[in-house]
Write a sequence for this structure.
């Protein structure tokens, strides 16, 4: 099934435009877990935003920030290489800001990674994070915000050890 952010599965009125925003690392999950999740949500008439565009710049776009803000729930699909993407980590920080500011519900899904590896940036998940930080040579404040976001998100109730 083709996932298209531009074509929501149902129209929604009111303050929020989407029921669910899905944050994921495409190379790990797009053709398996995430596509099934998206299909299932749409079959249940749940308005879902999923960004499957592969041409990404260094910063998340304003339209993506707006989609995060316009969602009632964010689902974060943590996978082995999630932390190798600056884009994903910036999405995560924005999602957690929306949790604080708008009381957005945030549900972490741990896809073939252990929550403690996400929380502590260890194992292969931690290796991905370290390689990104080394490659980008990002400032200390940005690294700190990513570390804090990973720790916070990994302590939320969610779905652990999905090995589909």
């Amino acid at each position: 099934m083709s996932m298209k952010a531009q074509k929501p599965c149902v129209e929604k009125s009111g303050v929020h435009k989407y029921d669910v925003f899905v944050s994921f690392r495409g190379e790990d999950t797009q053709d398996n877990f995430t596509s099934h999740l998206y299909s299932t949500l749409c079959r249940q008439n749940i308005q879902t935003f999923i960004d499957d565009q592969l041409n990404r710049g260094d910063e998340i776009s304003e339209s993506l920030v707006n989609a995060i803000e316009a969602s009632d729930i964010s689902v974060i699909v943590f996978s082995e290489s999630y932390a190798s993407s600056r884009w994903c980590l910036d999405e995560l920080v924005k999602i957690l800001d929306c949790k604080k500011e708008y009381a957005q519900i945030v549900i972490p899904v741990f896809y073939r990674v252990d929550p403690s590896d996400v929380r502590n940036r260890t194992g292969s998940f931690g290796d991905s994070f370290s390689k990104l930080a080394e490659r980008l040579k990002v400032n200390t404040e940005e690294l700190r915000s990513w570390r804090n976001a990973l720790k916070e998100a990994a302590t939320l109730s969610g779905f652990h050890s999905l090995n589909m």
About this structure: The first strand starts at residue 18 and ends at 23.
